[in-house]
Automatic annotation (TrEMBL):
EC assignment: 2.7.1.11
GO BP of this protein: canonical glycolysis; fructose 1,6-bisphosphate metabolic process; fructose 6-phosphate metabolic process
Assembly information from the UniProt record: Homodimer or homotetramer.
Catalysed reaction equations from the record: beta-D-fructose 6-phosphate + ATP = beta-D-fructose 1,6-bisphosphate + ADP + H(+)
Residues reported to bind Mg(2+): 108
Keyword set, alphabetical order: ATP-binding, Cytoplasm, Glycolysis, Kinase, Magnesium, Metal-binding, Nucleotide-binding, Transferase
Enzyme class label: transferase
Protein function: Catalyzes the phosphorylation of D-fructose 6-phosphate to fructose 1,6-bisphosphate by ATP, the first committing step of glycolysis.
Binding site for ATP: 14, 76-77, 107-110
GO molecular function, one term: 6-phosphofructokinase activity
Protein name: ATP-dependent 6-phosphofructokinase
Amino acid sequence: MLDHVNIGILTSGGDCPGLNAVIRGAVMKGDRIYGVNFQGIRDGFRGLVEDDIRPLPRHDVRGLSRTGGTILGTSRIGPFGEGGGGSARVKQVMERNEMDAIIAIGGEGTLTVARMLHDDGIKVVGVPKTIDNDLSATDYTFGFDTAVSIATESIDRLRTTAESHHRCMVVEVMGRHVGWIALHAGLASGAHAILIPEQPVSMEQICGWVESALDRGRAPLVVVAEGFMPDGAEIVRDALDGFGRPRLGGVGEWLGPIIEQRTDIETRVMTLGHLQRGGVPTSYDRVLATRFGLAAIDAVMDSKWGHMVSLRGIDIETVPLSEGTADLKSVPQSRWDEAAVLFG
């Protein structure tokens, strides 16, 4: 165990409900139990590249578990991008600020950068964060429950107007290349079709489910993940994010007119977008994020460099960062088959 530590904390990538709870958990335990100091790195890895760092005392994290967003700010800027300076620049900034280690809170892109920094000798511990729930090394990530809850409530509200007008409603949710949000929100809201990247579904089948629901006197509801690939083609926007990945979105707008044309059922489309990442976290996410923060500071003090905290069952463990970023956690066939019984 380290005797004295000055820890930097950053939140990188897309914002997510529960980030502040992680920060609070780590700082509270670090101060109370270990007596260490913390530094807040502003806007993710940008703060490490541009030396934008400030003290993060315990006073600053009071009451944060219920607060959405992140007090540290976030970005998709990475040290290995153009002009970032790589590990050499990160080491230089850490040395200048007498920073001994980093807790990096983020999703697949952030944890991949953290692994690369570790490979270059930088002391780093990861905390998995993503509303998409797509990291294979942890059963759940905080933010996912909140995103599903927001999507479910939004869909419930949309269904009342759809039923009043006897319309079909297509609702696009986030998730990137996995369908966890769509699956859970679709099941919770009683969707008549759930479309996810893991399962190819023909337009004939989609329209069949829509017509079946209408024939039973229901207003058809289709929940589609942004990464769903109609006819095997990914729908993307003409832009890349800070990690060089295509920005998904628009599949709902693509599907709506085709459903209306083929079924002659008036169809409306709603893209929930960043609503799913905003607002206060659910109680489940507050607890999980706090536990992750508490475990992260333990991992730092135990010198578990190159590891991330992980939820396995109901227990918090640590696993290598390489394991956390090796594969996407896709929706398995069994979960799809379970849900598909209810379609149409």
